[in-house]
Amino acid sequence: MPGWVARSAQPQAAIAKPVLARSPAAPVAARSPAPAVGVGLDSAAVRVRMAQRLEAAGITHPGVLHAMASVERHRFVDSALVNQAYEDTSLPIGLGQTISKPSVVARMVELLLGSEAARSGLGRVLEIGTGCGYQAAVLSRVAREVYSIERLRGLHEKARHNLRPWRLTNVHLILGDGMQGFVNGAPYAGIISAAGGNSIPDAWCDQLAVGGRLVAPVVVGDGKQALLVIDKSSHGFKQSILEAVNFVPLKSGIA
C-alpha cells in the first residue's frame, strides 16, 4: 500500500439504520440553477451567491455548483448560527464536531467527481463522518447512492432529523465505526472522509472500487493536515497530497 495508507484497527460492527432518501434526479450537469425566490435565508439567491463565490474561487464542476446552490445549509446548523450559514466558515454542530466550510465541501466533492469512476456519473459513495448531514445532502445530488456513517449517536440522530424533510431516498445513514468503512455497501466509486487521522485505514482502500477515488484529510509530517487523494486501479494505488486543511480527528468506536 502507499506510504500514507496504514493498517486499520479490528472491525467493529456497524449498525444499519433505515434508509432516508430522495426522488430520482436528472443528470447533474443538465440541471438549471434554482430560481432566486423567497426572502432571507430561505431565498435561493443567497445560495446562488454562495455558489458564485465558490466558482470565483476555482470550483468549476457544474454538478457541484448546482448542488451547493441547492442544499439549504442554514437548515443544518443551530438556530443561533444561521446568520453565518452561508459564510465560508466551519461551524460547531455539537459533541466537539463541526460542519465544514462550503469551500472545503465543494472542493472535496469536486475531487471525487474527477475520478475515473465518475466519468459517466458518480455511482455509490461512502461518507465517513455524517455530522449534521449537510455533506450527505450535497453528495445526494451528484452520486447515485450515498452511504454515510457516523460514530456519535447524537450526531447520527441529528442528521436523521435534519435529512428527514428532504426525503432523500438515495441516502443511507449508518451508526457505526467509520474507520471500518461499511462493507455491506462496497465497492464504492468514491469514499470521502470528514475527519483526519495519521493514516488511511486499510478497510477504506479495500472497499474502494477499481477506478474509484478516496478523498480524505491526513496528518502530514509537521503534524498538520492536508488533503490526500488516492486513486485505485487494477495496478494498485496512486496517491497525491494536496492543500492544507483542518478537520476534527479521526477516531474509532461508537459513542
From TrEMBL:
Entry's EC annotation: 2.1.1.77
Gene Ontology biological-process entries = methylation
Q: Using the UniProt record, give the first listed, main subcellular location.
A: cytoplasm
Q: What protein name applies here?
A: Protein-L-isoaspartate O-methyltransferase
Q: What class of enzyme is it?
A: transferase
Q: Keyword check for Methyltransferase, yes or no.
A: yes
Which InterPro entries does this UniProt record tie to the protein?
Answer: PCMT, SAM-dependent_MTases_sf
Q: Could you tell me one molecular function GO term of this UniProt entry?
A: protein-L-isoaspartate (D-aspartate) O-methyltransferase activity
Q: Which family does it belong to?
A: Belongs to the methyltransferase superfamily. L-isoaspartyl/D-aspartyl protein methyltransferase family.
Q: Which residues form a coiled coil?
A: none
